[in-house]
Design goal:
The chain is α/β, with parallel strands linked by helices. 32% of the residues lie in helices and 20% in strands.
């Protein structure tokens, strides 16, 4: 699935980090392709190395994730105390797993990502952390029981969690090419421009709340 459903901020394939800083990696802003919006004052790192065997090896995924965090922290313009993570599709599940595993992230945002886990967050382990989840209520890849279990898990973890469930919205709702992919591969996907824009605004608001801008 990760080969045909791609996120649409810069050139990230699955998930990426955002760090509060007044600069841009490689001179590229974090851009919202569909709405011509840009997150100003953030450095983005492409962390797309999460496919294949990593799906079943979260220890390896965490090692790669942390290597990316360390690389980002080493950037001359980055405030190493202000790191957040954003993921789409499989990447959305990855960033949630990293939060559960205790990776120090201020804001974690998942767009149509998986919610089920074999390793739930420990009680009160996410106090002070902002978790943003943007989900399609009609996404057949996210079962209702996974949604309920996730909400209960976040309540126990103490996270500052926002869960937005978009009615009649399928998987990959942020991808303008989702309908074409869905037809080509016979997968229930569909772009939803309203949910796309609203979820991006939710991310922008969450980052502003965390970092004051």
């Amino acid at each position: 699935m990760e080969e045909i459903i791609k996120p649409f901020i810069t050139l990230v394939l699955l998930s990426f980090f955002v760090s509060s800083a007044l600069a841009e990696v490689k001179g590229e802003a974090v851009e919202y392709r569909a709405g011509d919006k840009t997150l100003k004052g953030f450095v983005a790192y492409d962390a797309g190395a999460f496919a294949g065997e990593v799906r079943s090896n979260m220890d390896q995924a965490e090692a790669r994730f942390n290597a990316g965090v360390d690389l980002l922290k080493g950037h001359a313009t980055v405030n190493s105390d202000q790191i957040s993570a954003i993921g789409y599709c499989f990447g959305g599940g990855i960033v949630l797993e990293m939060a559960r595993r205790g990776v120090d992230l201020d804001v974690v945002a998942s767009f149509h990502g998986s919610l089920n886990t074999a390793q739930p967050a420990a009680p009160q382990s996410l106090v002070g952390k902002k978790i943003l989840v943007f989900n399609g209520a009609a996404d057949r890849m996210v079962k209702p029981e996974h949604v309920e279990a996730f909400k209960a898990e976040m309540a126990v973890s103490g996270a500052d969690m926002t869960f937005v469930d978009y009615p009649d919205t399928l998987h990959a709702f942020t991808n303008p090419d989702a309908d074409e992919y869905g037809q080509r591969f016979n997968i229930p996907l569909a772009y939803n421009p309203e949910a796309d824009k609203d979820s991006w605004q939710g991310l922008s608001d969450g980052l502003k709340q965390a970092y004051g801008r």
